[in-house]
Amino acid sequence: MAGRVEGKVALVTGGANGIGLACAELMAQEGAHVVIADIDGDAAAMRADRLRAAGKAATPLGLDVTDPSAWLQAVAGIDREFGRLDVLVNNAGLATGGQSIAEFSLESWRLQQAVNVEGVFLGIKHALPLMRRGGGGSIVNMSSIAGLVGSAGMACYAATKGAVRLFTKSVALECASRRDGVRVNSVHPGLIDTSLWDAIFASAGTKLAGLEQAALSAVPLGTVGTPLDVAWGVLYLASDEARYITGSELVIDGGLTAR
Asked: CATH topology for 9-252?
């Protein structure tokens, strides 16, 4: 099925690398005009240039998801250029871990809350009016399996992702009650080969066995996932194929949380 999001305008935060980039590239391939938003504006521009060179529709956007004024400007710019927003993928996030909660700093706690939770809140708050004016759309919030089960050494990260999970469900019910045509779902990746894990390993202050070894011992499918594995799920939720799905959580973890 080609053109699964043909003609839609999609904003992807944290879109210059990893899962966000895979989502942006796949949706552009499937016909969307993708706004690649990232705190690294130069990286976003480079990714958008590459997509345009391949004949796809892409626009770069420098965006700090923790900045309310930046969100206002971003949505206003999308409104001016396209007059609509059909898909919002709240993907930007960060993780630190490997420390006892007693050793974890309040500064690090607040930073993770600001990016992982407040960034999602601000994105939805400012994008919803434009999406509603266009007749609806799809919001996909990137959570994690850490938002479903506990994880020693990752308590603060898990707290943010658990918040995203229930925030998603609550906003989905609010939108449904208004019959505004906006669907809201969360995606929960497991062990995915991205730089996020490099940051986790680094903050743990030790050289761990690595993702492949972790997957062999813990993941029923016995392998690490790729950003594209997650992007296919996001594409489905963004498309009209998922018209009857809202307030749900899509787990993409190779069976890790099925036990």
From this structure: Rossmann fold (3.40.50)
Residue of 71, 104, 121, 157 with catalytic role: 157
Burial class (CB in 10 A: 0-12, 13-18, 19+), 36: buried
Which residue, among 32, 45, 51, has the nearest Cα to 89 in the 3D structure?
Answer: 32
Sign of the torsion formed by the C-alpha atoms of 100, 161, 63 and 33: positive
**SS3 sequence of the chain:** CCCCCCCCEEEEECCCCHHHHHHHHHHHHCCCEEEEEECCHHHHHHHHHHHHHCCCCEEEEECCCCCHHHHHHHHHHHHHHHCCCCEEEECCCCCCCCCCCCCCCHHHHHHHHHHHHHHHHHHHHHHHHHHHHCCCEEEEEECCHHHCCCCCCCHHHHHHHHHHHHHHHHHHHHHHHHCCCEEEEEEEECCECCHHHHHHHHHHCCCCCCHHHHHHHHCCCCCCECHHHHHHHHHHHHCHHHCCCCCCEEEECCCCCCC
CA distance 161 to 11: 20
pLDDT tens digit sequence for 146-188: 999 998 888 999 999 999 999 999 999 999 999 999 999 999 9
Distance, CA of 64 to chain centre = 14
Active-site residue, 157 included: yes
| pLDDT at residue 213, as a whole number | 76
Find, among 105, 191, 180, 92, the residue nearest to 146 by Cα.
Answer: 191
What predicted TM-score, i.e. pTM, was given to this entire model?
Answer: 0.94
Instruction: Give residue limits of the domains in the chain.
Output: 9-252
Q: Per the structure block, which two tokens stand in for 195?
A: 């730089």
